[in-house]
Amino acid sequence: MLTVTIVIPTWNESRRVMACLRNATTQTVKAHEIIVVDNNSTDNTRELVQGFIDQHPNDNVILRQQTQLQGLIPTRNYGLDIATGDIVARIDADCMIKPNWVEVVAQYFASHPNISGVTGPVCYYDEPLPPLGQWGDSLVREKQYSADGMMLLFGSNMAVRRSIWPEIKSDLCEDREDVYHEDIDFSLHMFEHGFRTAFCDQMITGASARRMGTSWESFKAYMRRFETTFNAHPGHVRGGYPEKTLLKLYPFLHTLWMVYGAWCSIFKIDTPELLWRSYRERVGLV
Length: 286
Description:
Layout: E1 4-10, H1 17-25, E2 33-38, H2 45-55, E3 61-65, H3 72-82, E4 87-90, E5 96-97, H4 101-111, E6 117-119, E7 122-124, H5 130-144, E8 146-147, E9 150-151, E10 158-161, H6 165-168, H7 182-192, E11 197-199, E12 205-207, H8 216-231, H9 242-266, H10 271-275, H11 277-282
Parallel strand pairs: 1-2, 1-4, 2-3, 6-11, 7-12
Antiparallel strand pairs: 4-10, 5-12, 6-10, 8-9
């Protein structure tokens, strides 16, 4: 079976990083390695990760620091540079991958030799009814989240063959002003090199909908990154405009996020921990 490295960039992620690591290490097939790359956190993220490593020495979690440049892109790149698995996956530090995620990723690449990158649906654990959110996310992503006839990779849930990294690395935008969607930039440069991507509906990640908790002006600014990214990469044909859909849904999803968050706070419900509990019990991962 192909081996899978998971890269997790972190910056002040003490709230969720432990749950993220518990999900990443409680899998039907173990990851080859899980590389946490910290980017000058000012909270206790590094101490928490090191404590997890000390308590779970057989889970091959590796902590590294990227201190030269501040930002997601150089931190992500540092992790991709040192990864040794056949497949390199990238998730966020607040993501809770499904317990069969590593197995699904490895099997998908093994059975699709012409595919170099794959992404999948996301369910949102801090919105009510995560399965319904996953259905909506899949619908938008499959219908609108594409370019040049291929799927755009989504940073919270993506994996690529490690062999393509040296070929595209030098072409990726540094985005020092932090105005692009780095995962779309990554995808478009893959397309320019002739690498193909696909959508796997079984490659499921739980993620935070925390963008829905931001102000309207902040959310609009974040959505403008779609246009800014594509404008900086002329010649690509967009398959849709997911930002238009999300802007329309924002008032409803923002209200849900606020109300559900307050309800979970009152009753002390840890939604990330609950997300895959029943699945882990069914497959004997406790």
